[in-house]
Amino acid sequence: MIRPLFFALAATLSLTSTVQADPRADYVDFCADCHDANRLGGTGPALIPQTLKRMRGPKVAAVIRDGRVTTQMPGFSDDLTEDRIAALADYLKTPLEAVPPWGTEQIMASRVMDDDYDSVDAPVWASDPMNITLAVETGDHSVSVLDGDTFEVLDRFATPFAVHGGPKFDPTGRFVFIMSRDGWVQKYDIWALKQVGRVRAGLNSRNIAMSGDGKWLAVANYLPNTLTILSTEDLSVAEVHDVKGKDGTPSRVSAVYQAPPRESFVLALKDVPEIWEVSYSETPNLAIFAGGLAHDWRIEGPVAQDTAFPIRKITTPDYLDDFFFDQSYEHVMGASRKGTDGLVVDLVIGQKVADLELAGMPHLGSGITWKYKDTTVMATPHLKEAVISVIDMQTWETVKTIPTEGPGFFMRSHENSKYVWADVFFGPNRDVMHIIDKETLEIVKSMRPVPGATVAHVEFTKDGSHALVSVWEDEGEVLIYNAETLEIVKRLPMRKPSGKYNVWNKITFSEGTSH
Ligand code: DHE
């Protein structure tokens, strides 16, 4: 990074002087070049509390002082005193005084389509296209494209900074869309092994959802309080909805999910006790939202069929942050903000139909289902309690609460596997992976593949024969297990690998994976 001489001189002099810390000035001198004058990100990520809150304790100050290895972020310990570093770190954690407009015009201006991208007629590789698996590596913000049979790495490409949530495949499994917390959406062509383009759909975003017909991508935003709907074809903006509850209260969007049989997106809202359903049907059929609820519909934006996304707002008895759907997508399970219980809303009638016993802050987004006796059960880990809840999806009763060696984040299984894999993400036993028998609901094995290292998040191959487990460390790896014998058959070195996503399991909505 080249800094004008007078800045360097001024900074060096101030090390020994008694100059009062002025974090705003230090931001302009040392950070703005890469992170933008408004702190919303440039070549470096956004430096706002919404992004930085994940870096707990003194970590922000440590990055300013020491930099980040293998990135372009230098350390500033030669330029700034400890006091000034601490003041700058505090400044970055204060909310922006004003959020700049980020509507259609700004989003479209951010869009970059790659000049060197050429479409191909067939994959440029010979692997099974349905068994491709992506591994997100958060250590250096990249994705590895794996052949699901040989586990050969076909490509490794750069993503935007800090990817969150599952990448979403189009229904053919050829294109994948990846979102970062700074609101960037990347389109990548798996056949061509090339990025197609990127667009910044929000300033701080949560996750994305693909419409069942593959035409639209919905982006849930915290900043601004909007839902952005993009065309999957060219990442152009179809609509940007201001998100305001029935009484006009603006709200952040906690998450957006697709409900393919309903031809809609379903939104969890952070600041109003409502569930929203946004139709992407070309002929929105109000009859499917039976029960005289047509008055809940509101057409916003242009009325033309191909650009209007009608919204239905359902009032809920509580704020719901996180969702899980049954396979029919009629019922949505929601976790209450208090983290003490949950409820079930029937989307057809727009009403709560059951309460759920869910203490310990369930992470419903990573819940899974399987056939159990004569019913279907759903299981979810809890972020604040060392248990897994197993719930009957017909009666909504808790079938079993399975004690674990610590709170977990992710769970996975596969139709062809008799086991559920559940990590222990928090606490001293975060190196443990539990194996649960789907019939007995007992933990049958607790594995510690790399003692002391966090192991988390599992994905299966298309046929369920192998399970891929992340060793979630800077110099980490993805361990390939034989899913039957539970033996490791291969190890792939990776940089802090997080989620893995198999094309087939995702596009067929396998019951063993999150949707
Ligand atoms: Fe996630 C998925 C919410 C923190 C890694 N996370 C999701 C989803 C939601 C969610 C709603 C499902 C959306 C989807 O995939 O489309 N996550 C939240 C939070 O509210 C929480 C607790 C706090 C926050 O700051 O956002 C949170 N999540 C984290 C992390 O700290 C993790 C471990 C590391 C990171 O990268 O930020 C993390 N979340 C993930 C991953 C998925 C995810 C890897 C996708 C899982 C999958 O298999 O689909």
Automatic annotation (TrEMBL):
Write down the EC number.
1.7.2.1
Q: Where is the signal peptide?
A: 1-21
Q: What PROSITE patterns would the database entry show? A: CYTC
Q: Which residues form the Cytochrome c domain?
A: 18-96
Top-level EC class as recorded in UniProt = oxidoreductase
In the record, what terms sit under GO molecular function? electron transfer activity; heme binding; metal ion binding; nitrite reductase (NO-forming) activity
Highest taxon, organism lineage: Bacteria
Q: Which UniProt keywords apply?
A: Heme, Iron, Metal-binding, Oxidoreductase, Signal
User: What protein name is recorded for this chain?
Assistant: Nitrite reductase
Provide the species name: Pelagimonas varians
This chain is encoded by the gene named nirS_2
